[in-house]
Amino acid sequence: MTRVEIRGLKKSFGPVQALRGINLEVESGALVALLGPTGAGKTTLLKCIAGVEEPDAGDILFDGQSVLGTPAWRRDVAMFFQTYALYPHMSVYDNIAYPLRERKWSRQEIDRSVKNVAEKLRIAHLLDRKDPSTLSGGEMQRVALARTLVRNPRIFLLDEPISNLDAKLREEMRTEFKRLHKELKQTIIYATPDFLEAFAIAEKVAVIKDGVILQYDTPINLLRRPKNRFVATFIGSPTINIMRGVVRRMAYGWEFSTSSLRIQLSDVGHYSKLLDGSEVELAVRPRDIVLEGPKNRNTFKAKVVAAERLGYETIVTLSLGDVELKAVTKGMRSYKYGDEVIINIPGDRVILFDVSSGEAMY
Amino acid sequence: MANLRNNRRGRRKIVKTTLIYLSTIIAVIFFIFPIYWLVATSLKTRAQAFSTPPLFVWEPTFRNFIDIFLKRQTEIEAITGQELELATGAEIFFYNSFVVTFSSIAIATVIGVLAAYSFSRYKPAGTSTLMFFILSTRMLPAIVVAIPIYFFYRSLGLYNTYIGLILLYTMFNLPFAVWMMKSFFDEVPRDIEQAALVDGSNPVKVFYKIALPQVLVGLGATIGFLIINVWNEFLFALLLTERATRTVPVMIAGTRGEVGINWGLIAAIETLYILPALVLIFLLQRFLLRGMTFGTVRGVK
Ligand SMILES: Nc1ncnc2c1ncn2[C@@H]1O[C@H](COP(=O)(O)OP(=O)(O)OP(=O)(O)O)[C@@H](O)[C@H]1O
Ligand SMILES: [Mg+2]
Q1: What's the CATH fold of domain B90-292?
Q2: pTM of the model
Q3: Residue of B199, B209, B212, B298 for testing the chain A interface, max A β-carbons within 10 Å
Q4: What is the pLDDT of residues A220-240, one digit of tens each?
Q5: Yes or no: is domain A4-234 CATH 2.120.10.30?
Q6: Distance CA A257, CA A271 (A)
Q7: Which of A216, A263, B176, B217 gives A206 a disulfide partner, CB atoms 3.0 to 4.6 angstroms apart?
Q8: What is the architecture of the domain spanning A241-354?
């Protein structure tokens, strides 16, 4: 159980700035997800924490002590590599046993631990395989995972540990991680580009992009109160709807208007940074738009452009004058192109962004 | 109809296969025949070796092979009718060749592997300049540096010593060793070594427990390549040695005169001389092929 603190961490590869000032605190025993698109710097950050990449600036602390002077082989962290990084000249058993042998465990202890973790990850039947390159992708991933989980380090760093598994196994493994975390009560930093995965397993999620942590928050806050446009669009499927318009101060509060619709926003105090008459972007999640609901102030007529029926729900693409919106409705609804529907846009669920900076205006 | 087409296709395939085999056989004969002739001559008596038309069927004799090692200088000189530089029999020259080859390859390989790994992993400042410099030492034609090295060796007392030849061959081979090994180390995924670091191995252990096993094939190719380089070297061996340190290629050249040469004896020496190279190539053929195509294979799984 170790508390991790990262302060102003910077790392460049030649002209590429992979990390540009990362600040992050991971509580002892917490499971934190590092969520970001490809090239965001997730792997680089984990490698800096593990000690196999040397940061250019900043500090990394374990339990308040800087570890920058401690080489990787003495830092006592375990890392799952995105590329698996299995040792090609060792059998599956030897791969998993490697970290224990390097720590001079006794033969019996090693054997017990290896078999135990192999059992858990359902690869016990693969232990005798001589050449790990003959394993299937999913098997390699589980062997690499076993090598990571076989010991009990201060911190686990997991770099997209289940991204190449098929959907079903991935779902199983997500649950497995939560269970494992409950059992081990270990500090885990878990990198993934998939927000569903991050939300499913982590208590707190750090959204990273271009080497900067944009927001470090709980899943519900990331969904409801994203700090900027990128976080809002990166999280959620289908992607959040964004339209551009002007805000005006009215007697009842703020009103957002485009050429074809006016949306009354709820309270005034909520948007402290808003200027009367300024241009903003309004975002509303497809699942927050209500189709065929009771009429209220923000009820609009819309035309159906397309409908994707996904079984339990239907994603409808709608056009309202000059804007196009996606909405999600329960059940299998057979909308046809050109159908007219009534929609409600909940004024208390929208998020406003500054047009130039993309920052949310709360 | 379909049958006919199949027939035609089948016939075309047979013609194609035959042509491929035929040209392969011709190529093999082309390369093998000189070696066959060499070995055959070594198994003939002097008279048989000179017979016209050449003999293709005869009773082989191992006299020549025995003579190489048993006949002392004077006897061989009497047989060949020319002054030979054999002091004790031929074994001393084989011994010299082995000593020089083995030592210089051992040194060049150890230094080369370590240098290549450092260049590949730690990329010290000026790596590309240094790598180019290392290669550039092999860009001058050998003959250009031969005279300076000769005087250099004379004045340093390295002339006609094992150390002198070993140093020279080490220097000649080091660039190949570094360049070949670097390209093999470059292919080893960084993540594998980083995983080992995280798993608790220090960099020295990572080198010999993780990196080195990945490049064994390349190491085999490199060593094979270097051995053949040294074993065949003639120019500097000729310039820098006398009896005591003379290697086999120089000795063979020295026994070639105008009249009355015992070709059978020379063929026997040459047969023994090419034997280690043949065995080596046969044993390392997998590695050598790999060495010739290095850099082109392997994707990271
Ligand atoms: N060894 C390296 N040399 C040069 N550039 C690198 C190196 N490692 C990473 N980078 C660059 O740093 C940036 C961040 O890379 P990183 O691998 O950390 O991203 P990531 O978030 O892990 O992406 P992914 O989801 O694709 O794995 C990228 O632009 C990448 O090209
Ligand atoms: Mg990555």
Answers
A1: MetI-like fold (1.10.3720)
A2: 0.85
A3: B199
A4: 999 999 999 999 999 998 999
A5: no
A6: 16
A7: A216
A8: Beta Barrel (2.40)
